[in-house]
Amino acid sequence: MADLAAAPFGWERTALAVEKVKDRLRRATASLGKAGVPYAVVGGNAVAEWVGRVDDAAVRNTRDVDILIRRTDLEATKAVMEADGWVHSHVLHLDVFLDGPDGRPQDAVHVVFAREKVRPDDVTVNPDVAESEPASQFRVIALDALVLMKLNAFRLKDRVHLLDLIAVGLVDQTWTARFPPELAGRLQQLLDNPDG
Question: Tens digit of pLDDT for each residue in 78-137?
C-alpha cells in the first residue's frame, strides 16, 4: 500500500463529508430555484431521494452533485450561480460550478444537459427537466427518467444505483418494456443477477 498521509479514523469526518455534499446540493438548487431556472437533481442524490422514500436504511451516500438543466438556460444558470459565489469552469469537457474561487473539481456541482447525449455513443438523449417532481427541498428527476439515465451511462456506479432501486422494489421485471431494446437488455442483466 502506498504511504498516504491519512487523517485519523472518525465518524465525525464521514458525517461532515456527507453534510458537505448535502449543503452544496441545497445551496445550488436554492440558487436555481430563486432565479426560476428549470432544473432537476439527477445522479446519486436523485437515487438517494427515491430509495429513501421506500427504505431510508438503504440510502447510499454520494460525493457528486449533478444538476440537469437545458443548454438554453446555461447563461442564466451561470449568472445566478456566480452571483451566489460559485465559479463556472470546464473540467474534462464538462461544465461545472466550483464551490468558490478555491473550490476543487471533485467538490463541484456538475451540469448535465437535458435532451442531449452525455457521450456520443449513448443509446438515447437525457430526459428533459420537465420530467421531474418536487422533493422536500428541490426538484428531483422522475423515476422513469432516472432509470433511463442510469441505463444509458451504465458505469459501475450506475449499475450499483440501479441495483439499489431494484433492491427496494422500485424497479422490477415489468420495467424492461419501458426502454429501447439495448437499455432493456442492460436492465435485464441486473434483474437476472442482482448480487453481481
Answer: 999 999 999 999 998 899 999 999 999 999 999 999 999 999 999 999 999 999 999 999
Dist CA 123 CA 141 (whole Å): 19
The beta-carbon contacts of 22-30 under 8 Å, at least 24 apart in sequence, are: 24/65, 24/99, 24/107, 24/109, 25/65, 25/138, 26/137, 26/138, 27/84, 28/65, 28/67, 28/81, 28/86, 28/97, 28/109, 29/67, 29/137, 29/138, 29/139, 30/138
pTM of structure? 0.94
Please determine, for residue 3, whether its predicted confidence score (pLDDT) is greater than 70: no
Distances (CA, A) of 16 to 4, 23, 45, 102, 107: 21, 10, 16, 19, 13
pLDDT tens readout for residues 147-167: 999 999 999 999 999 999 999
* Domains parsed from the chain with CATH numbers: 28-192 (3.30.460)
Looking at per-residue pLDDT, the higher value among 3 and 10 belongs to 10
Give residue for cell 456506479. 157
d(CA 148, CA 69): 16
What distance in Å separates the CA atoms of residue 104 and residue 158, rounded to the nearest whole number? 23
